[in-house]
């Protein structure tokens, strides 16, 4: 994340609410033809009571050393080169499996949205397919997974988007620690376990809390014990289906209320299970 503007002040207050909050606004690709983009709108003069932008636009431009750049360029994150890891895999087979998995998620989107509307607020999205079309896989595992990370960070909203971003960044690091060679199921399982451990430091969600973790953990554990993506995907699907009737202890479902959770699975777990099914060729 590279900030292009920092606006600090007393924008929201609460009695007995001592502390502070930090809000992040994604300003990447917010331009609309014929209209100002998000950064330009933030820089625009305003007489609204309580709103202030104490750091002037020219100050940012001078500090960044790119005073002649456009606002769109300021909002775009610079791509970073990732060194090859020596972890090799069949990129054609991987692209086929990944494409099937993503198409599964897209096909399941109406159901996921319906489930999310019943127990959440209907946020769901994915753009990795476009990335695969525009940027062919290299065959180096770390390079290719690292290439997907910014796509997820910039296009997936909500808590799930943040969790996936944390998990995938941890996965890149975990894969980097593996010995060079062919990427086997056991290597994947070891890296995925490390990623789960990293994710657990940022969220208290565990199996049984009715979250995407209910599908993630069974997939990883079954892959580790069996070495079979098919069996791991089936375990994830079974676990996701078992979230029907499971009362949430975390996430938006806790305070949305109602009885919708009794009829539908957790949308995050279900969407992830559909993804895993696609990886398994189903």
UniProtKB/TrEMBL annotation:
Assigned keywords, A-Z: ATP-binding, Glycerol metabolism, Kinase, Nucleotide-binding, Transferase
Pathway listed: Polyol metabolism; glycerol fermentation; glycerone phosphate from glycerol (oxidative route): step 2/2
Reactions catalysed: dihydroxyacetone + ATP = dihydroxyacetone phosphate + ADP + H(+); D-glyceraldehyde + ATP = D-glyceraldehyde 3-phosphate + ADP + H(+)
PROSITE patterns: DHAK (PS51481), DHAL (PS51480)
Limits of the DhaK domain: 1-51
Biological processes per GO annotation: anaerobic glycerol catabolic process
Keyword Kinase found: yes
InterPro entries: DhaK_dom, DhaL_dom, DhaL_dom_sf, Dihydroxyacetone_Kinase
DhaL domain: residues covered: 92-281
GO cellular component: cytosol
Any one GO molecular-function label of the UniProt entry: ATP binding
Primary role: Catalyzes both the phosphorylation of dihydroxyacetone and of glyceraldehyde.
Family: Belongs to the dihydroxyacetone kinase (DAK) family.
Name the record gives this protein: DhaL domain-containing protein
